[in-house]
Predict the structure.
Amino acid sequence: MSSQPINWSSFSLRVNIRKDIQIIYDCWTLQAGLENWFLREAVFKDASGKQRAGNEPVQKGDTYEWRWHGYPDEVMERGTVLEANGKDQFIFTFSLQCPVTIRIYTEADETIVELTESGLPTDDKTRSAHFVGDSRGWVFYLTNLKSVLEGGVDLRNKKMELRNVITA
């Protein structure tokens, strides 16, 4: 057993998915891709404020508004695309404007999606909400990405009247 203290400022999660790297990348960087497994609504705007089309890849400097199934429109996340390299890395700001890095690569003949959220606050009050809360949400959504891509089953709760379920 390790006596190393927990690094509350970041976490990384990995999932193997039996799909091509570009297919997975598009699931993160296209409005239509994100709405297929993650969001009810994903709106991206370029630097001039023009909304991107649903099949138009996001670019560095774009801003977004994201809304989830099971939550009213007022519950949304706003952020900025920090990097979108067109093939295997996507970085965006998330809760408290902390960066989330998505890396997609091959390991042991499997495609790996690695998510790292960093820059998290480490004070007692907020670390639970962001380290624990964000990682818990990402575990579900990475599992749903795998489920949708490998088997076509969307695990998200889409009913507003169902509350306090792990699928939303």
